[in-house]
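Re: the 162-residue chain
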Amino acid sequence: MSTILSPSFRFQIFLFFRFAIPMLGFAKPKIHVLDESKCILKIPLSRRTKNHLGSMYFGALCMGAEMSAGILAIKLIRSQNQKIDMVFKDIQANFVKRADGDTYFVCECGDQIRQMIDQARHSSDRVEQSISGFAYVHNMNEPVMEYRLTISVKNRSKSKGI
């Protein structure tokens, strides 16, 4: 299920996790699939990500949701030749059942994110879009979490004075 990522992109993601937002790297995420339309990311259930009941901690689940959408958005933003910034505005999560094993986070909203980035490329305004995804443990038939994130992007190269 793994996809081949360029060593350059892999290294840039590593540096981002290590220095920009070290807490994301603490969960030891692994990218399993990354293409233009989807990202599947795994966070292992470990001492770092467990809660006191032996299932994945709420914070680790939210980090996985953020990373699955964020890595996909970063990949699509990098394909542009403009300085586009991205932040998350909000998150809504429904925890369906306990995540009692390695958890896979699936974001298949590449088309929505690409449209949002294209819109931001031609504007100096902030563009926001709500996207969804889900997380599963043992098989894709039983999600343990469903989430919606609002991504906000802005084209810095269109700002005043530039």
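The two ends are 43 Å apart (CA to CA).
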